[in-house]
Amino acid sequence: MTNFERSPKSCTSNFRDNLFLRLLRRRESGIFLALLVLMLTITAFQPNFATANNLYLIGRQIAYTAIVALGVFFVILTSGIDLSVGSVVGLSGVICGMAMAAGLSPFVAVAAGLLTGLAVGAVNGAIVAYVGLTPFIVTLGMLSMARGLVFILTHGDSIRAIPEPFIRAGLMDVLGIPMPVIVLALVGIIAYFVSNHSVFGRQLYALGGNEQAASLSGINTRHLKLMAYSISAMLSSITGVLFVARFRSAQANAGLGMELDAIAAAVIGGKSLMGRQGSVMAVLLGASIMGVLRNGLVLMAVSSYWQELIIGLVIVLAAVVDIARSRWR
Amino acid sequence: MRKKFLPVVISVASALAMTGCGKKSEEAASAAPRIFVMVPKGVHPYYEPCYEGFKDAAGKYGVKVEYRAAKAFEVPQQVEIIENIIARRVDGIAISALDDQGLVPVIEEAVKAGIKVITFDAPAPSSKALTYIGTMNEAAGYAGAEELIKILNGEGEVAVIQGGLGAPNLNDRFKGFVRCLKEKAPNIKIVAREDEQGKMDLTVNKTEALLQAHPNLTAIFGVSAEVCPGASAALKQQGRGGKIILAGFDDLPDTLAGIRSGVVNFCIAQRTYKMGWLSVEKLRDALEGKPLPKEIDTGVVIINKDNVDTYMQDMKKEFGK
């Protein structure tokens, strides 16, 4: 139960030191420091990294993955896992693209894409919560089914009849901030309040901490799970729709393998896969480390044979540091 | 896709049944027409022109053809499909091999059953397949570099993007590409070789990073199919479409659209129709006991603005279609 005290709410109230110390003690500060060190290192090797243009591009690249990672975050909070998110990105994008290709208004198309995500998530959640299957199996099956549906619908081809106004909207800047980052900010703020300042959020942490205890204390754990998987797939479909603008087409293999990046972001963000830990901020930082690393390795001209090894190393290293941190406390 | 082809198969078969009696070809001499089956790696639009060539050649020679595609690109599924075909005692099978070692036993089984087996598009050199009809990837990479040298006038910085570093066909293309630049244009420098793992988003991200890392980049060359669609999206977003030379492999519809709009300079396409057509001819040769060469290079076609709308027809004209 000691771990439970480190849920974001109780953490801050435990320390009455000054603000700086309090910030330093938070798990996020360690990850933030790591991100900073990473960025400085890359800049030292390749000054081109820290240009405004590159940071803009990285921000946009990170946003797509981070939105998906935030969805997975809710599922991981419940000690579950969602492996289907990458396929949901593909499926919702294809539905959105097909709707526009059929002449429907982009608003309707976006709604169709998001509803697709919601529906897939509801199916995942219902099977996990009410049938009681392991999330790993359910979402692994869904990974295959959703991608299969994409191939049935598209025969592997892409949908290119995307109206130009939609593409412009999906890539436009507001005050110099790219659209996906704005969407991420909105999603992040909502996710923060839902996870940290709502009854639902506290119940999720409780469910992840000890399902039986949560259930005995009157929490409807099944309903919570249904909601968590629905949120996860719904957020994935946001990225799915944004990808249609980014690729100027709905691609059959959009989001391929994205579940791994999203889960990696969550793990770097300091969450054990056992649930109940982590925060929205930590996930965003985790996604940022992944994005910065991917971009930085290309900029530093690191051989492509080495890149994957380094990325994997960073993921494991982050997890090791996190465990070490929690033991020293 | 199988459903889509079924009516075609039936109509070809019935057309043969109607005209077959008057023909004096060897096929008609035997009681039933010979049956050749095409087995692609799985359901994919890439194989449509392959089968078209297969079908058209079958029409010419009075052979009955079928198409059997697995739902997924998985070796066990492909093996199962081939096993089912063997059980039906067909005359010839043309396989686009998903795997070399994985298909060795099932191909041996087919050969034992007296069925002629060849590979097209993707080889299985360890197996008893009689020949391989397809693109020699190293030569194809070489041809791509030759075209790029022409456009760049022999100078510039090129970044190569590849989808997966473990795919032998892609590595061969890269090898041929590098060899050609070394031999013919030592002033063209390959400044980067990035892996996008067959992922669209990674392709776009890496293109963006490459443009940032190499301000003097003059060209991007894609060794795998998804590079041109992904890189062209990134170039368009930055308003650099047409300013950076973009070229790569395979004639995906997105790539062709890119050629029409000027973002993609050229693409290298495999002669898929020819693969299908030659498959029928070589299976016939094998049945007649003629020796087959180990490999048959179908070559590539360079597609640019001039022939983007006609290249498919041009490829068929070669065979009088």
Shape of chain A: globular
Q: Summarize the main sheet of chain B.
A: 6 strands, parallel
CATH architecture grouping of the largest domain in chain B: 3-Layer(aba) Sandwich
Distance between the termini of chain B: 23 Å
Strand line-up in the sheet with most strands of chain A? 1-2
Low-confidence stretches of chain A: 1-13
Name the structural class of chain A. Answer: mainly alpha
Percentage beta strand of chain B: 15-25%
Rg result of chain B: 21 Å
Number of helices of chain A: 15
Contiguous uncertain segments of 5+ residues of chain B: 16-29
The string of secondary-structure elements of chain B, in order, is: HHEHEHEHEEHEHEHEHEHEHEEH
Number of DSSP helical runs of chain B:
12
What does this structure look like?
Chain A is 75% helix and 1% strand. By secondary structure, chain A is mainly alpha-helical. Chain A has a domain at 67-280. The longest helix of chain A is centred in the N-terminal third of the chain and has 26 residues, at 52-77. The model of chain A is unreliable at 1-13 (pLDDT under 50). Chain B is an alpha/beta fold and 321 residues long. Chain B folds into 2 domains: 2-135 and 271-296, Response regulator (Rossmann fold, 3-Layer(aba) Sandwich), CATH 3.40.50.2300; 137-270, 3-Layer(aba) Sandwich (Rossmann fold), CATH 3.40.50. Chain B has a 6-stranded parallel sheet with strand order 2-1-3-4-5-11, sandwiched between helices. In chain B, strands 7-6-8-9-10-12 form a 6-stranded mixed sheet, with helices on both faces. The model of chain B is unreliable at 16-29 (pLDDT under 50). At the A-B interface, helix 4, helix 14 and helix 15 of A face strand 7, helix 8, helix 9 and helix 10 of B.
